[in-house]
Design brief:
Blueprint (H helix, E strand, L loop, with lengths): L7 E4 L13 H14 L18 H15 L6 E5 L3 H14 L3 E5 L8 H13 L5 E5 L10 H7 L5 E6 L4 H11 L4 E4 L5 H7 L3 E4 L6 H12 L3 H20 L2 H11 L16 H13 L4
Parallel strand pairs: 1-7, 2-3, 3-4, 4-5, 5-6, 6-7
């Protein structure tokens, strides 16, 4: 099923792993079905929270197959494609589309710096290798590049590049993107402290790991924004603020995974060299989720 319009709350799924670091398919199926039942509007396996950059291709393939199977076409599945090389990203994108996803999200981790034209060449090549809708992803905090208006304008020559997930948190930049390119490019918020502001500007939703552990609150936030109840939406976003602070202080994947453990999903710890939360971190996240009625 090819669901062409992505919107709303789209959680970045964690990747459940057993003690040996192997994928726990049954837990992933259960989590997928749980989030769909809660009312999310889509699912993204192998995003940042899913530790896609740390996994080998056979594990990634198994993750995508499991989520597509468990989703049963009820919501769009937009799988992350993460590779340091253009050749590797093209391979993953083609194989991912073949599995039956509804779209791909392209992530470009970097080791050496890349110039704007190299960024354009990479994303263009991957987009041209598939026919499904493409979500561009930028997170300058973790990479050595960011999209500019000019690079986005050039990339929008590719008809299947239709969405941008922006984790910069730069509202001024997002204002420029949406006012200049918004008729062609739909924007998702990523950073947990700005989804209301992004949707005020015309953004179409929130793609992020926190929705794995607070799906009800995330959906409520989206619905308030969709109804233009901005004061109520901002009040709810303020209530979610302590969770964002925890993500900044501790590892994002570790925070979401420990929260899911407490909610009854044995997803395991993050992959080394990442580390699980220490006791202080665990208690901090537990208290935040308790305050949000998420436990």
């Amino acid at each position: 099923m090819n669901k062409q319009e992505f919107h709303g709350i789209i959680p970045y799924l964690v990747t459940p792993l057993d003690a040996g670091g192997h994928l726990n398919k049954e837990v992933l199926r259960t989590l997928t079905r749980h989030l769909i039942a809660r009312g999310v509007h889509g699912l993204t396996p192998l995003g940042s929270t899913g530790e896609g950059a740390y996994l080998d291709w056979p594990t990634k393939k198994a993750v995508i197959e499991t989520v597509v199977e468990a989703a049963e076409g009820r919501v769009p599945v937009i799988a992350g494609v993460t590779s340091l090389t253009t050749k590797g990203a093209i391979y993953e994108a083609v194989e991912t589309e073949r599995i039956g996803v509804d779209g791909i999200l392209i992530v470009l981790p970097t080791y050496f710096p890349v110039r704007d034209q190299e960024v354009v060449t990479h994303f263009r090549a991957v987009a041209r290798a598939v026919s499904c809708p493409v979500v561009l992803y930028t997170n300058p905090r973790f990479s050595q590049w960011d999209f500019t208006l000019d690079t986005l304008r050039e990339l929008l020559q590719e008809p299947n590049i239709r969405y941008l997930k922006d984790a910069s948190g730069n509202i001024g930049k997002l204002m420029s993107i949406i006012t200049t390119l918004g008729s062609r490019l739909k924007v998702f918020s990523a950073t947990a402290h700005v989804p209301v502001f992004v949707m005020m500007l015309g953004g179409v939703g929130w793609m992020a790991g926190p929705a794995c552990i607070i799906p009800d609150q995330a959906i409520a936030l989206y619905e308030l924004a969709r109804q233009r109840k901005w004061e109520e939406a901002l009040a709810l976003q303020k209530k979610l603020w302590p969770l964002n602070l925890a993500f900044q202080k501790y590892s994002l994947a570790a925070c979401v995974k420990v929260g899911l453990e407490w909610q009854g999903f044995p997803v395991g710890p993050p992959l080394p060299p990442q580390h699980d939360l220490d006791e202080a971190g665990r208690q901090a996240v537990r208290q935040i989720l308790t305050d949000l009625d998420a436990l």
